[in-house]
């Protein structure tokens, strides 16, 4: 099963400047493990010390926010598109 992952610009240095990468995984959690295996160091940017997804990084599966699905246990299907979107704050 292959899932397309859209990588935000600040993290592309960890993906050899690729804006998209293909990963495998039946869930977001498994996808993150595969992404880390292919792009060492990226998981530290996406997850905290306890392995939980960071609050300021949003994940979308086919434009659906995983916070309203099943979080890191959100299931993935072949051909899905996962977007990683860092939150932007300001005033």
UniProtKB/TrEMBL annotation:
Highest taxon listed in the record's lineage: Bacteria
Stored CDD domains: Ubl_CysO_like (cd17074)
One protein family per Pfam: ThiS
InterPro entries: Beta-grasp_dom_sf (IPR012675), Mopterin_synth/thiamin_S_b (IPR016155), Sulfur_Carrier/Prot_Modifier (IPR052045), ThiS/MoaD-like (IPR003749)
Name of the molecule in the record: MoaD/ThiS family protein
Taxonomy of the source species: Bacteria, Bacillati, Cyanobacteriota, Cyanophyceae, Oscillatoriophycideae
């Amino acid at each position: 099963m292959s899932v397309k992952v859209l990588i935000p610009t600040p993290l592309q240095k960890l993906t050899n400047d690729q804006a998209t990468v293909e990963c495998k995984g039946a869930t977001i959690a498994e996808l993150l493990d595969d992404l880390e295996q292919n792009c060492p160091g990226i998981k530290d940017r996406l997850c905290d010390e306890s392995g939980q997804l960071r609050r300021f990084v949003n994940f979308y599966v086919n434009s659906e926010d995983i916070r309203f699905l099943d979080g890191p246990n959100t299931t993935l299907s072949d051909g899905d598109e996962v977007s990683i979107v860092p939150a932007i704050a300001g005033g």
